[in-house]
Amino acid sequence: xxxxxxxxxxxxxxxxxxxxxxxxxxxAVFAWLREVDARFSxxxxxxxxxxxxxxxxxxxxxSADLAHVLELCERYxxxxxxxFDVRLPGxxxxxxxxxxxxxxxRAAELLSAxxxxxxxxxxxxxVVAAGGPWRVGIRHxxxxxxxxxxxxLTDAAVAxxxxxxxxxxxxxxxxxxxxxxxxxLTVVAPTLTEADATATAAFAxxxxxxxxxxxxxxxxxxxxxxxxxxxxxxxxxxxxxxGLTAVRS
Length: 249
Description:
Blueprint: E1 2-7, E2 10-16, H1 25-40, H2 48-53, H3 64-79, E3 87-88, E4 92-93, H4 96-113, E5 119-123, E6 126-130, E7 134-139, E8 147-153, E9 156-162, E10 171-172, E11 177-178, E12 182-189, H5 192-205, H6 208-214, E13 220-225, E14 230-232, E15 238-240, E16 246-248
Helix pairs in contact: 1-4, 4-5, 5-6
């Protein structure tokens, strides 16, 4: 089964390779993601996040889900030394960098709970792969029609951060300016919650983010710095790499 919808401002695709697909499993995935968009988007005036930003809700009145997301945001802020922060002066609260990975991981867990064993859920290039192996390409950060690596994933998640799709949208919160030093940084982790937040925080840290991400438990890293040099951790499940000079970290 293949299904694609535009949710949270992104193309989200679901492929299920099981012989039997439980009725309503895919519907539940996309319904959950639409709910997340309505509740957590800082761009929707009626969302819980927007209401919190306007002072219409206090932190004691927010939902358990939003409280959990904010706890994750604070954890990554502290662990990145302040480079990653979802609260920037003049911009209000924007937890999207954590919400996407967390919500897609939750959607994957809905599929697993329904009995789906082999599937690939892709949200704008950030992927949860169950069963496997699944082959997932890492886009070349400077040439849209090329890959710089192909990963083989089994029961894992992968997320990439960079400026090549959306411009300089990732800021180093320590300076308030766009992060520099890297062209892209990819993290493979057991969950997309961790892979996505780690990739974003590491990119905000610049070149120091490579070692920071690599030192986190169960995380593997593929990074391209501003000079085009590639750094990959030894455990990265790479099937094939081409187009860039690779070095071992």
